[in-house]
Hints:
alpha/beta; three-stranded parallel β-sheet
Amino acid sequence: MAPGARLDAEYVIHAADLDAALERTGRSLEPGDAVVIRGGWRVREREDIDDPYPYFALDVIQWLADHDVSIIASDVGDRVLSKPGAEIPLHDVALARLGMPLIDGAEVEELAETADRLGRWAFLFVCGPMPVQNSTGVPVNPLALF
């Protein structure tokens, strides 16, 4: 997906989409890699938190586990607004059951623009969370170094 474009509201991202992205970019994953997924839905530009936006299918979490991904960052949501009570795969499964750290509401547009301009889809991903105890989440400032 070109920088500036975005997925349709309520698009369901499946493992096949991630396989297609790897094929399109000529990349492969190594155990411990971070995965950044851009859907073009910038959190700060959304008018209403309850507006529909893309989300992940449960098979994405299996895909992440099968590829031994260490962390996922994305601007895509984790709520199925059209299906109240539906499982939220990133939080219910990846985070809670697999212990996989996730970065919600990541601002990845500039990263996508830089990767597209350089024609490079691999980079050093650095993320050091603040040492906060007894918390379920902390702010982070991840860096992508090309």
